[in-house]
Amino acid sequence: MSPVIALVDDDRNILTSSASDASSASSIPASTQSRPFMASDTVSARNRPAEPRLPFRGRHTLATRLLATNLLTLVLMAFGIFSLDAFRDQLLEERLERITAEASFAAGALTTAPRAMRNQILARLGTEAKSRVRLYAPDGHLELDSWRETGPTFTLRDPKSQPWTKAAARLLDRGFNALTQDGYLEPFADPALDSRQSWSEARAAFSTRTPQSMVREAPDLTPMLSAAAPLNDGSVVMTMVNDRNYTRLIRSERATLGLAMGFAALLSVALSLFLARTIVDPLRRIARAAHRVRLGRSREVRVPRLPSRRDEIGMLARAVSDMSQSLRHRIDNIEAFAADVTHELRNPLASLRSAVESLERVEDPKLRAQLTDVVRQDVVRLDRLIGDISEAARTDAELARARFEPVDLGPLIEDLVAGWEARRTSGDVRIAFARPRRASTIVLGDPARLARAIDNIVDNAISFSPPGGLVEVAAARVGDDVRIRIDDEGPGVPAEQRQAIFNRFHSVRPVAETFGRHSGLGLAIARAIVEGHDGEIDVADRDDAPSGARFIIRLPAADVE
After folding, report:
1. At CA 252, angle to CA 251 and CA 257, rounded to 5?
2. CA-based R_g, the chain, Å
3. What are the C-alpha distances in Å from 86 to residues 72, 92, 246?
4. Could you tell me where the DSSP H helices lie in 151-303?
5. Mean pLDDT, to the nearest integer, of 12-28?
6. pLDDT reported for residue 212
7. Angle separating helix axes 281-295 and 312-359, nearest 10 degrees
8. Which of 348, 305, 314, 425 is CA-nearest to residue 9?
9. What band does 507 get if pLDDT is binned at 50, 70 and 90?
10. Please, where are the H alpha helices in 113-199?
């Protein structure tokens, strides 16, 4: 069923024309034609396509999710590296303590044993510990060597003869050492002349008379652990071992760490896919909808609102949906406004054309004077209509560009009173203004526009007031609002007309008023201005008088120091 738009003809009769008529092709109800539209959260309920159900998608902001995703992998990696480094340091410390204890034990055994048995004791100690034990005389020369009796108990391996897997393991060793910033280890090499002076730990044990230990690096990057302990006669015993088991344990732990890092990488990929699904996909859907809105090929574009999301994506989706809804209704309003303007302009133009054509054929001076008066009235009416149409057309645009400032409505209304008193065009209607307390009725807005809205409503009240009637204007702060009340003593507004009177070109004027004095846009412009300031306007019957209308304007109060 087509909506019906109320129009007024030259005889002030209310006409009804279907929205399908050529003169007023409108696709929306008249009650929405002049009202700025703000799409609510329920407007596009049918435009909500199914969303992927993902946990935690609406509880955290995108910045939090991205930061957590990027940090999680780094935290797992750092934890693994530091734990492996701590394990390696602890293991090395234990190995050094053990070989130092072996050196101290060897020094004690050699001190108590006869000199003839020292060679056998060194051989037995080297065989059981898989180490090489040397005894340096007080003058520093090599006196005894366990390998002379048992042969080598360990063999240093040549890296060139090992498979590529060992080379890869050594490369990982170097990388891990660089990552943990481990200190440089002295390469191991047998001295050309084996004496106490060839070994720093032996020299230190001889000079300090305390056991000393040392770590060196074999050619295949396995540790060479050595410890020296002094004897009572000035000799020094030194134990040395190539601890390959230490390297195997470290590499085993590193393999475990590699598995953990692989898991962390998989987790990072999964989280990235999660973010792509919760961020990229909704953005892509919103972008497609915005593209369809830009093309304008479909009247009803389904923009996803994502109502369950409370993050930035949800805010963006609802903002774009509201924007598209507002844009669509604004376009509908423009189309309806153009149709209404066309219809309203045709009436005075038709009357003007008829009068001009009749002037050419009428000879009676009195009739010609009447026709001339009709032409003058139509021209005045057209001028007023065009001015009001221009004002209504640019109200929304000017409010969108306006910079709001604090406005004290008390002085503003007081300045308007003089103009209203001077106009008194309808039977000497009186105006009474209850001046509010200073700075108690401050709002944020455009003072010129607010004055225009109040002026339109008071002008409407004056036009409906009887001769000698009283129009009362009051402004006061009520809670978080500033309320402006305009009371008249006219016939009031029927309940069924209280919304329609704010529609464009809706005008039911008093019988005694000269036709064409009002365009039917005054209240529509007033409501557009008030709602452009985030306010409300409504009308009701007076509760303190037998008859009359009461207009209430509510505007958000501004707390300005």
Report:
1. 90
2. 49
3. 21, 10, 14
4. 164-180, 200-208, 244-275, 281-295
5. 34
6. 94
7. 10
8. 348
9. low
10. 118-129, 147-150, 164-180
Spell out the domain ranges in the chain: 67-256, 403-561
Whether this model's pTM surpasses 0.90 = no
Which residue's entry shows tokens 């109320």? 6
Confirm if 406 and 442 have CB atoms less than 8 A apart. yes
7 three-class SS? strand
Which two three-digit tokens encode residue 108?
């004690």
- Return the closest-CA partner of residue 446 out of 334, 528, 521: 528
Backbone φ and ψ for 216, nearest 5 degrees, come out as -125, 175
Residue-wise pLDDT tens digits, 335-345: 766 776 776 67
- CA–CA gap between residue 368 and residue 359 (Å, rounded): 6
pLDDT at 178: 66
Fold classification of 67-256 is Beta-Lactamase (3.30.450)
Q: How many CA atoms are closer than 13 Å to the CA of 206, on its beta-carbon side?
A: 22
Q: Which residue has the tokens 């987790």?
A: 267
Please name the fold of domain 403-561. Heat Shock Protein 90 (3.30.565)
Determine the Cα angle at 389 with ends 388 and 394, to 5°: 100
